[in-house]
Design a protein that fits this description.
Elements (H helix, E strand, L loop, with lengths): L1 H47 L6 H13 L7 E3 L1 H12 L1 E4 L2 E5 L4 E6 L4 H4 L7 E5 L2 E2 L5 H4 L10 E8 L2 E8 L1 E4 L5 E4 L4 E5 L7 H14 L4 E5 L8 H9 L7 E7 L7 E3 L11 E5 L6 H11 L4 E4 L7 E7 L5 E10 L30 E3 L5 E3 L8 E2 L7 H8 L2 H12 L13 H10 L9 H12 L6 H20 L2 H29 L1 H11 L1 H7 L4
Length: 542
């Protein structure tokens, strides 16, 4: 009997091995087959297509189009993309200290970083760099444009800038630009400290630690930790920062992957900075990934009160894989889970619908989990704050507005129409100013709703040219409807415009200083920290 069982086991193992071998070979053959098809197609195009083909550009687009149906985080990086990604991770590069828009006209300056080469040369947000060292930038591709301003620190170059219809020439010396992920850390009052973390680059934990120690010396006994609009970054840095406020040996996050060695449980391994200080962590709909690991872990251990709006909901982990010729693949390798077991991923990319839309995991229901104190928390789409700060629900028109450059362009015009702002603390953007903004939108060409675009296209292809008056009337009606829709989000839009304007006069530092005294969410956080009975009650299961 034993012999027969052994023969059966051997037979099953043998069949399984053959099946796996066949399956592996079959999959390998399919991959090789598709690569060969692409190679032959590429050769035929290169030989016979009527116009010249840029091989690198064609391949770059082909690969990126291949990946776009997986998820937004799995990306191919060509050599220039690799350099840009390295800068984001390390927070250092040789350049002039600006963020930019790449346009067909040239490089438009989006923001000036205080104290670096662009600032020293009196460049301004809104300036359009149209030539570098005599080379016109018109109609260049993004990859070409991105190479012009970066280079070795102390190297010099000349530019031509278009500003408000005038051409200005500048000679600039590149700096070593260091992007501090903690751009602001100050005391709100005698006992309450405030730290802003804008990204999880390789300097994030060291800069948070430095800021925390500085504020402790200044008398900090309570902390507001601002992760709003922080898109994330390094998994390791998020673990280190969580560890600052959690005991050694606690599980911070776990990952589950297809490849077994990438499924891990990450624990706090260092001595914490402070286990007692009351903390309020601020999040919003643009707080993602590493921001959600920190806020999720502190929530699960009842170590901090989370305040704001539901976070973005990115529960996926990426890793860089080296490819040939200096290129890279950033590939989603796993999902991550908070200490209570929550996966906060919102969108289910694996089950994309036929029309291209991505369903939400929460559409199938959400699951309950328990914190260390027994409080109920949920999965299925971001970290839900313990205290929700209400704001108006964004309309589709508002989303279009925020994707456009209308607010940026308005702030540029405002800056040149107003030579100064008297006080960073008291500056306000009133309802009367909002009315000026909506009037400005009549001349803006960047903010176009779907209805306006469709109507304009229909008018273009219309055979009749005798309907211009009717066309103008309908255009006016569509504009009025657009203004009505964005006015429903006046609270959101006014705040964004105000911050954009303040940035022009006082840099990002001025925006943070203004918010320290005027931001409603920060005020709510301070009020909660001052009421310790309410604070402790929120962290209790009772």
């Amino acid at each position: 009997m034993k012999f027969k069982i052994s023969k059966k086991i051997i037979l099953v193992l043998l069949v399984g091995t053959i099946f796996l071998s066949f399956s592996f070979k079959s999959k390998f053959f399919e991959v090789a087959k598709q690569i060969e098809i692409y190679n032959t197609l590429f050769k035929e195009l290169n030989m016979y297509y009527v116009d010249e083909i840029n091989p690198a550009d064609l391949t770059d687009k082909a690969i990126k189009n291949t990946l776009k149906d997986l998820d937004p985080y799995t990306n191919f990086y060509n050599e220039q993309d690799v350099e840009d990604a390295k800068i984001r991770r390390e927070g250092e590069y040789g350049g002039i200290g600006i963020s930019v828009y790449y346009t067909k006209k040239g490089i438009q300056i989006r923001e000036i970083y205080k104290g670096f080469a662009a600032d020293k040369s009196d460049l301004k947000a809104g300036d359009m760099i149209i030539s570098v060292d005599g080379q016109s930038l018109q109609n260049m591709e993004r990859d070409q444009l991105s190479m012009f301003l970066k280079g070795t620190p102390n190297s010099k170059f000349s530019i031509e800038v278009e500003r408000q219809g005038n051409i200005i020439k500048k000679e600039i010396t590149r700096d070593k630009v260091i992007v501090n992920p903690v751009p602001f850390a100050e005391m709100i009052d005698e006992e309450t400290g405030y730290i802003v973390l804008t990204r999880f680059n390789n300097k994030a934990s060291s800069e948070v630690k430095k800021a925390f120690k500085k504020l402790k010396k200044e008398g900090m006994k309570k902390l507001v930790f601002d992760l709003r609009s922080n898109p994330g970054g390094s998994l390791l840095e998020s673990i280190n920062i969580s560890n600052f406020f959690l005991p050694k040996g606690k599980k911070i996050v776990s990952t589950k992957a297809k490849v077994k060695k990438w499924s891990n449980t990450y624990r706090s391994t260092n001595k914490p900075l402070d286990l007692e200080i009351p903390i309020v962590v601020l999040v919003n709909g643009r707080s993602a990934s590493a921001s959600e690991i920190v806020s999720g872990s502190l929530q699960d251990y009842d170590r901090a009160v989370i305040m704001g709006q539901r976070s973005f909901g990115k529960g996926l982990v990426q890793r860089y894989r080296e490819l040939t010729y200096g290129t890279q693949l950033k590939v989603t390798i796993s999902k991550y889970y908070t200490p209570s077991g929550r996966c906060i991923q919102e969108l289910d990319y694996a089950n994309r619908k036929k029309d291209g839309t991505v369903p939400k995991f929460s559409d199938q229901g959400i699951n309950e989990f328990k914190t260390a104190n027994g409080r109920t928390v949920y999965d299925g789409g971001g970290v839900l704050p313990d205290v929700i700060i209400k704001e108006s629900k964004r309309t589709e028109a508002t989303k279009k507005l925020l994707q456009s450059r209308a607010i940026f362009n308005f702030a540029t015009d405002y800056f040149y129409a107003n030579s100064n702002i008297e006080s960073v603390d008291s500056f306000d953007f009133k309802d009367s100013d909002f009315k000026k903004f909506t009037n400005y939108l009549k001349t803006d060409t960047t903010f176009v709703t779907q209805q306006e675009a469709m109507f304009k296209e229909a008018y273009k292809v219309s055979a009749s040219k005798n309907i211009s008056k009717e066309y103008e009337k309908i255009q006016e009606k569509l504009f009025e409807a657009k203004i009505d829709e964005i006015s429903k989000n006046k609270d959101i839009i006014k705040k964004i415009i105000k911050e954009e304007i303040l940035n022009r006069y006082f840099y990002k530092e001025g925006v943070f200083k203004h918010n320290l005294k005027n931001d409603n969410t920060i005020k709510e956080a301070v009020n909660l920290l001052q009421n310790q009975a309410e604070y402790k009650g929120l962290l209790s299961a009772k």
